[in-house]
Structure formats: C-alpha cells, structure tokens
UniProtKB/TrEMBL annotation:
GO terms for molecular function: ATP binding; ATP hydrolysis activity; ATP-dependent DNA damage sensor activity; mismatched DNA binding. SMART domains: DNA_mis_repair (SM01340), MutL_C (SM00853). PANTHER family: DNA MISMATCH REPAIR PROTEIN MLH, PMS, MUTL, DNA MISMATCH REPAIR PROTEIN MLH1. SUPFAM superfamilies: ATPase domain of HSP90 chaperone/DNA topoisomerase II/histidine kinase (SSF55874), DNA mismatch repair protein MutL (SSF118116), Ribosomal protein S5 domain 2-like (SSF54211). GO terms for cellular component: mismatch repair complex. This is DNA mismatch repair protein MutL. Residues 483-626 form the MutL C-terminal dimerisation domain. The keyword Cell cycle does not apply. Pfam families: DNA_mis_repair, HATPase_c_3, MutL_C. Belongs to the DNA mismatch repair MutL/HexB family. Keywords: DNA damage, DNA repair. CDD domains: HATPase_MutL-MLH-PMS-like (cd16926), MutL_Trans (cd00782).
Length: 669
C-alpha cells in the first residue's frame, strides 16, 4: 500500500488555520476585511477574554443569501475572483477564500446574515468544521458573526497565546488601523468592561486622526499629497516584432500619496505610530518604512521614529498583495520608483513647511509644573531641576548655593587622590533633614537606605607625580575627577590622574536616578508628589489596554493614575522630579512597547523599563548650564552607582582620554 494519501478537509483546514489564524487579532482582521468588502458603513467589534472566549463582529453590509452563506465555509470559496488573471488586479481586501473555513475548523462559529433581496435571513452554527445547524430567521440586513472558544480543539495552539491584555492590545491596534483607513465608516470596539473605541464616520482623514490621536498630536502633523504618473518610471514595452497588429500601449496610471507626517518635534520610540495603507490595505512593508526613515534622516535622531498616516494609491497591477498568508506584506512592481517617490514627497513636505518647535508648547511645558504641590524646592520651570536657592544671575553662584550642594561624605577611610565633600545636610522641603540627595531634583533617599561607600582608589605615586604603572581604563576613578566645566552646556569636562574625561550629564544623571528608583522600589519608599489638579492624558485604545496591565507597577513606582473616561487617564500623583510635559511623555513611553518586547516582557523587565523611563525624563537635560557645585555632586554620585558604564538604555556615560594617549598624540611616548 502506498504511503502518500490525501488529507481530509478537516485536517487541511486546520493546517490552513495555522497560517491564517495566528492569534485572535488575525480572526478580527479577516472578519473586518469581509465587512468592509461587503460595503458596511457601521462595524461593531465585541471582545471577551482577549478574543479567546468571544469575538463578535456586527455590520450592516450587503449580507449573504442562504446558498452563499453555506458556500462561504468551503475551502477556496470566494466572491472576489473568477480567473487567474484577476490576481493581477486585486481591488478587495479579502480574496483567498480560506479565512472562514480556517476559523470554523478551530472554533465554534455562529453566523447570522441576510441579503437585502431576501425576506428572511440565515443562521448557521459550526463547531470544529462540522455544520450543526442551518435555519431561517428574521434578521436585519447585514452580517453578524460570533467566533467562540478559539482553538478549543487545538489546545497546543491555545497554550501559545499571550495574556488577555496582550491579545486585546493587538486587536485594539488593528481596529484603530482600519478606522484610520476608512474614516467614512463608523467603528466601535468593546471589551467586556469598557468601550475602547467609538469613532463615528467623518468626511476626511484629518477628522478621523483628530478622533483617535487627539488635539495635541493632530496639531503637530503636516498634510502631504503628491501624484506622479508611472510613465516616468520607463516601463519596458515589448519590441515591435512581438507586438500584435492592434497593439496599444497600456495606460501606466498614477501613483498618489496623501496623508499626514509629523513635525520633527513629535517623536516616538518605535514604529507603532507609522500607519501605511496601499489601496486602503494595511501593510507593514520594509521598503516603505525605509523610505520614511530616509525622509527623516538628519531631521530626527536615528533611534526615534515619526508619526505617519500615509495612503498610497496605485493601479492594482503595480502591487502584488498575494505574497503573504496574512496579506500584511506586498511587493511593488517598481520598488525603487515607489521608494524614491515616498521619500521625496515626505522630505519635500518637511523642507517646505520648515517646522519648528512651538513657543507656546514650550511655555505650556514649563508652566504646567505650577500645578504641583510645593514638594520640590522650586516647582515652576526647567530651572527648578537645578535645585533651590538658585541665584537670578547666571554668573558665579552665591556662597549659599555652593554650600547647599556640598555633600556630607560617609565615614570611610582616607583615600589619596579623592575629593572631600563636607557640608550641611541637604534640606529639600521635607520634615526631617536629609544626609544625601539629588540637588538637581530635590530628592531624598528612601527611609532605611544607607548610601554605599564611595569607591576607594589606592594608586601609588612616585615623587615625580607620575604613575609608576599606567592605571587601567576603568570607571572606578570617577570619584576623583575634578571638573573643568561644560562643553556647550551638555558634556562635563573633568580630569584626574588617569587623564581627561568627557561625561554626558544627561545619561550620568539618568544612571543615578535609575538605581535610586530601583532601590526605593524594592523597599517601597518611593517619594511621590500630588498634583493640585489632575493631569489628563489621552491614549489610544491599545495604550489603554497596556495601562490595565502595568497599572499596579506604576502605583508601586509612585504614580496615582486612574481611568477618566474610555480613553483618558487622570494622573493625581507622580514620582518626585516628573513634571508637566516630561510626565506625560513618560507615561506615553511606558505604554508604547514594541510587539516583540511586549510578548517576552516579564515582571522584572517591566519594572526596569518603567524605572528607566522615570529616570530618563526626570534627569537633567543637555543644553542646561550647571555650576561647579552641581557638577561635582553629579560626578560624586555617579561614582557611587553600581554600573557607571552606561545609562539604562545602553548609551555610554563617560569617555576617557588617558595620559598615555595624550603623550602619544604629542609624540612624547
């Protein structure tokens, strides 16, 4: 007997489900596309248990007659294609004919549908690919499909699903994408507990962007539009001897780009805010992403990403959408032409607009800290970060200012080559004096915490003040640095026995604050400040889902945040040092995690990520002048950290130009 046999329809459908149905969001995507192709103007999505328990989509589209409803669950049954030539000009979102049979093979499906020409609708129930019930019923025009107990008969697939909140976040992001692509349609997304998205139909994409992103983000977007005919691409034509007598050159058509791109001041940490649609199809294409990166090159940092809502329109024969089972990747017939057109269009928009940071935005960012209680010494502006009793002039600080920043050093054995810091205890507005703190923020250490002893060096020096052995290139000698000043108010220049050092003041302070936040988090002694008026932060639906997952960790880090409506958070308290715009950016940062990190993030990773974000936004910034006392404090505290090599995000803190390197440069070695 032969070994090769034909698979049953049920097994074939389950294999297809492995490609089409990756997670609950894949089911939502396929059903949403069917609703859009059916001409629906109102689409409602209901989710329970992250899509495991229930996915229900209700639309008012054209619906199906009884025979079509039954055929829709057969493999490769579709109304979108007739011949193979149709694959070259696909104008619909769904066309494979695999979605419904694949979904029905791994779930329990309940379908209710009715076409306008029928007096009665059709109800179909399917479980594991087997039809259980088919009957007529009185139904409105349109389709309602409910997918229950996803992967109930394939427990191995169910086991690999992520948490309910993670799966719901993927669904929320997907519905948001399609709501942006079709502003004229009404979209709703509801979970078991709240309405995550309710977007009424609007005439323009800009109005839909305002609905989803809010006033602030919309105000930082630039409209862009361009059109170019494909004739300029130089399409090859068949040679004369291969042309038919009635040959007529085909119309190459046009490529059109429209949408919105963000000003340079609006930056994100990942590409999750880049929305690209080709003929109204959501795509994730490396070619387009690279074109956008090139358009923003030298305008924003390479580690930052813009917010983009871009619509590409081109003849269907110029793009192949049949290259990926999930239909999220496409291939362009002329990739270089499309790439350069997108890059030049976006770049021209940025150059012509000449966007600059808004003065009012800067005023609002510095004025918002005035809503804070007077816990830090000077809540009122960027200068408040530099400690209390700051003199009005920018000259040499007063004696009181210097005394304030002198630190009381812990009792340690005397060490040659190390600076001594002694002075009055630091008082930062609390009831009891503090022995050590952060003059840049007005922080005090947690109760019960004992600062680690500074690193002690035992370098031996001869009478000629030259080291007998060249010191190793480590950061343990940071405590012996003597500051010389700042380079453009951003980098600290300092020297010691080992040579010349350049220290990035922002990342140095970020490392200090990161380790302090982690220590205070462990002993649950995080210092927080209450706001006189709650700060309202608008979020995307996916970010609201992410907030529900990390709300407990935010509270342990000094936040007091609670939902204020379906897509708004009210911040009532925050860690000391976070104020105004920095506080809002920090919350947006921790709620916008790339998918690959979100899938593998554990409790410790989440704790460190939040602590790193708090430290980054509370740290002293570049282009901020610091007097010598503050610089000395920063270098001393940096020497006490456990890992002074880099900031929590991996950027180096200090660069050393050793004495030996200096001698070699002057040809004295």
């Amino acid at each position: 007997m032969g070994r090769i046999r034909i698979l049953s329809d049920q097994v074939a459908n389950q294999i297809a489900a492995g490609e089409v149905v990756e997670r609950p969001a894949s089911v939502v995507k396929e059903l949403l596309e069917n609703s859009i192709d059916a001409g629906a103007t109102r689409i409602r999505v209901e989710i329970e248990a992250g899509g495991r328990k229930l996915i229900r989509i209700v639309d008012n589209g054209s619906g199906m007659v009884r025979d079509d409803a039954l055929l829709a669950f057969e493999r490769h049954a579709t109304s979108k294609l007739r011949t193979s030539d149709d694959l070259l000009s696909i104008a619909t979102l769904g066309f494979r004919g695999e979605a419904l049979p694949s979904i029905a093979s791994v779930a329990r499906v309940h379908l209710e549908t009715r076409a306008a020409e029928d007096d009665a609708g059709t109800v179909i129930e399917i479980a594991g690919g087997s039809i259980l019930r088919v009957e007529d019923a009185g139904l409105p025009v349109g389709t309602t499909i409910a997918v229950k107990d996803l992967f109930y008969n394939t427990p191995a697939r169910r086991k690999f699903l992520k948490s309910e909140q993670t799966e719901l976040a993927h669904i929320a992001a997907l519905v948001t994408h399609y709501a942006l692509a079709h502003p004229e349609k009404h979209f709703e997304l509801h979970s078991a507990t709240q309405a995550l998205l309710v977007a009424a139909g609007v005439p323009h994409a800009g109005d839909r962007m305002f609905q989803i992103f809010g006033r602030e983000t919309t105000g930082l977007m630039l409209p862009t539009a361009a059109e170019l005919d494909f004739a300029r691409a130089g399409l090859p034509e068949p040679p004369p001897w291969k042309r038919e007598e009635d040959y007529v050159a085909a119309d190459p058509g046009y490529i059109r780009v429209s949408g919105f791109v963000s000003k340079p001041e609006l930056q994100k940490l990942n590409r999750n805010s880049v929305y690209v649609f080709v003929n109204q199809r959501l795509i994730r294409d490396r070619l387009v992403l690279h074109a956008l990166t090139e358009a923003y090159r030298n305008i924003i940092p390479p580690t930052s990403f813009p917010v983009v809502l871009l619509f590409l329109e081109m003849p269907p024969q110029e793009v192949d959408v049949n290259v990926h089972p999930a239909k999220t990747e496409v291939r362009f017939r002329q990739p270089s032409f499309v790439h350069d057109f997108i890059r030049d269009t976006v770049r021209t928009t940025l150059v012509q607009a000449r966007p600059a940071a808004s003065f009012m935005a800067a005023v609002e960012g510095s004025a918002s800290p005035s809503l804070l209680l007077d816990v830090s010494p000077l809540p009122g502006g960027p200068e408040a970060f530099l400690g209390p009793n700051r003199p009005e002039s920018e000259g040499d600080p007063s004696r009181g200012d210097v005394d304030f920043f002198r630190l009381k050093s812990p009792v340690v054995p005397a060490s040659p080559g190390r600076l001594e810091f002694a002075g009055a205890p630091l008082a930062v507005g609390y009831d009891e004096p503090v022995s050590a703190g952060d003059p840049l923020l007005g922080l005090k250490p947690a109760a019960g915490y004992e600062a680690p002893a500074p690193v002690v060096r035992n370098d031996r020096w001869n009478e000629g003040s030259r080291p007998m052995v060249e010191p190793e290139g480590t950061l343990e000698s940071l405590g012996s640095l003597k500051s010389l000043g700042q380079i453009r108010d951003s980098f600290i220049l300092a020297v010691n026995e080992e040579g010349l050092w350049i220290v990035d003041q922002h990342v140095a302070h970020e490392r200090i604050l990161f380790e302090r936040v982690m220590r205070e988090r462990e002993v649950e002694q995080v210092q927080r400040q209450r706001l006189l008026m709650p700060m309202l932060v608008d979020l995307l639906p996916a970010q609201m889902v992410a907030f529900a997952e990390i709300a407990a960790e935010l509270e342990r880090n000094g936040f007091e945040v609670e939902p204020f409506g379906p897509r708004t958070l009210a911040v009532k308290a925050a860690p000391v040092g976070l104020e105004g715009r920095e506080l809002e950016q920090m919350l947006e940062e921790v709620l916008s995690v790339p998918d690959r990190e979100q899938q593998s993030e554990n409790a410790d990773t989440r704790r460190r990520r939040i602590a790193a974000s708090i430290a980054c936004h509370a740290a002293v910034k570049i282009n901020m002048p610091l007097d010598s006392a503050k610089i000395d404090w920063l270098l001393t505290e940096l020497a006490k950290t456990e890992h002074p090599t880099s900031c929590p995000h991996g950027r180096p803190i200090a660069l050393r130009y050793s004495h030996k390197d200096i001698q070699r440069a002057f040809q004295r070695s």
